[in-house]
Amino acid sequence: MNERLLIHQEIDLPDEFDVKEDKLFYSNIDLLKLAKDYGSPLRFTFLPAISNQIERMKMYFQKAIEKTDYQGEYSYYYCTKSSHFEHILKKAVQSNIGIEISSAYDIDLIRSLIKAGNLKPGTAIICNGYKTPEYQAGITAMIQQGYCSVVPIIDSKTELLYYLRESKGLSPIKIGIRLNLSFISGYDRKSRFGLSPEDILSFYQHEISKNEKLELSTLHFFNEKGMDNSDDYWKVLEKIVRFYCQLKRWNPSLTTLDIGGGMPFRSSINSDADLPLLVQRIISTVQNICHEEAVMEPNIITEFGKYTVAEATSTIFKICEKKTADEFNWAIIDGSFITHLPDTWAIHQEYPVLPINNWNKNLKPFILGGLTCDSADYYPNTPENEFIRLPDTEEEQFIAFLHTGAYQEALSGFGGVNHCLIPSPKHLIIDRNQDDVLEYVVFSEKQNSEQLLNILGYG
Ligand SMILES: Cc1ncc(COP(=O)(O)O)c(C=O)c1O
Question: 383: which DSSP letter?
Fold first, then answer.
């Protein structure tokens, strides 16, 4: 009991978790039962978490807007690339949001949502990313169809030239332009995205302002370092808002600043990011600069990916074996980090990890090893953290990697061939029905060897 209390105090479980009879519960779901009923490795998505995240963020913005008497409006967009699944999009758009897309096949994804009656007429779509001819044609078709309110974000000069040419056949359209951030001294990333401030001003002056079919309504940027409370973030934001003001003085049709994604998710169990404060600071920074520059405050758009979906999904593994090699304690999972959670390997992403059972046991440090033959297939994989702590027992042990819902399936090529032929895990979707009862649906079974061999041409 003492140990259990000690564990509780040390890790300070978030509200949606609980420990009962030495087992972990998530939103009242017994995770040990879940792992045993459905088998492991198991990815499960709890859809209500997506609506909660969106509603919470809208509330943060609403409060900040009211507190500061900010004159612009806020719109939440979900960026499809962080998880393209239909169940995710269907759930997200129920919260009356816009969608940000980034490639040609995303257009078909939108068409499919419309066809199935899952997208309301007038839903706002922002088209980001590099526009291949196929993507470009799809955007034009969507604009002509008129079901959604589509705003392409110009990412390069050739794209702008395309609209200057093609707009002749279209009704007047709104466009946005992505600002390349390399001009900012505090922004130390090499960026290929968007156009420089000089190019934007020159294109506006010489081309867009002279074309009555194009209305430049939106300035977009994405600080790829993510949103945080560091001085760097605010310095970069200030430079961008100053440029917004300069452009607005030239172009009265400019109404909107699209600040992209980057809102953090809880990547550790004791994550202390103060999101309401972050939002408050975004609003007041934009407002203060606009006041100084005597420019009307813009409407603000965000395109949050990982914030929207990461926390809705967890990945459960079973420990196959514990072994000692040299002075290290290894626990081998029945999956793979490289294939199931590729960000742990590629960008050293951390996730909260919790034991699912044996909460009455003492904890001992372990390195988790994956099933592939790759020496890089282990976790944790950061200089700061060398171990995770697991119950010190030889009994059957399950563990949960939490908040794994963003990017992992797309990066590992869901349903494809993976390193050492490690199959994609079973994927379970959990949602509440109209009577508020939880419903469990298997979205996909664990990949079988026939599926893999077929892909490889052995059929
Ligand atoms: C243009 C753009 N918007 C939004 C996002 C979403 O970012 P995040 O998942 O960090 O919110 C991305 C991610 O790459 C992006 O490139």
Answer: S
Separation of CA 447 and ligand 1 centre (Å): 29
- Residue 109: exposed, middle, or buried by beta-carbon count in 10 A (0-12, 13-18, 19+)? middle
- Superfamily of domain 70-304 in CATH is Alanine racemase (3.20.20.10)
The secondary structure of 257-323 as a DSSP string is EE--S------STT----HHHHHHHHHHHHHHHHHHHT-PPPEEEEEESHHHHGGGEEEEEEEEEEE
Distance 112 CA to ligand 1 centre (A): 22
> pLDDT truncated to tens, each residue of the chain (459 aa)?
333 444 444 567 888 999 999 999 999 999 999 999 999 999 999 999 999 999 999 999 999 999 999 999 999 999 999 999 999 999 999 999 999 999 999 999 999 999 999 999 999 999 999 999 999 999 999 999 999 999 999 999 999 999 988 888 778 999 999 999 999 987 877 889 999 999 999 999 999 999 999 999 999 999 999 999 888 999 999 999 999 999 999 999 999 999 999 999 999 887 889 999 999 999 999 999 999 999 999 999 999 999 999 999 999 999 999 999 878 999 999 999 999 999 999 999 999 999 999 999 999 999 999 999 999 999 998 888 889 999 999 999 999 999 999 999 999 999 999 999 999 999 999 999 999 999 999 999 999 999 999 999 997
Going from N- to C-terminal start, the domains of the chain cover 2-47+310-455, 70-304
Nearest-angstrom CA–CA distance, 459 and 457:
5
Quote the ligand 1 centre to 337 CA distance (angstroms). 23
Among the atoms of ligand 1, which is closest to the Cα of residue 102? 1
Q: Is the peptide bond before 342 cis (omega within 30 degrees of 0)?
A: no
Fold of the CATH domain 2-47+310-455: Lyase, Ornithine Decarboxylase; Chain A, domain 1 (2.40.37)
CA distance 313 to 405: 4
DSSP sequence for 216-256: EEEEE---TT---SSHHHHHHHHHHHHHHHHHHHH-TT--E
The residue nearest atom 5 of ligand 1, judged by CA position, is: 261
Mutate to test the pocket of ligand 1, among 303, 313, 407 (most ligand atoms within 8 A of CB): 303
Burial of 122 (0-12, 13-18, 19+ CB in 10 A): exposed
For residue 407, which atom of ligand 1 is closest to its CA?
9
Taking the complete model, does pTM exceed 0.90, yes or no?
Answer: yes
**Residue type, position 324, single letter:** T
Residues with CB under 6 A from ligand 1: 79, 82, 100, 128, 222, 226, 260-263, 303-307, 406
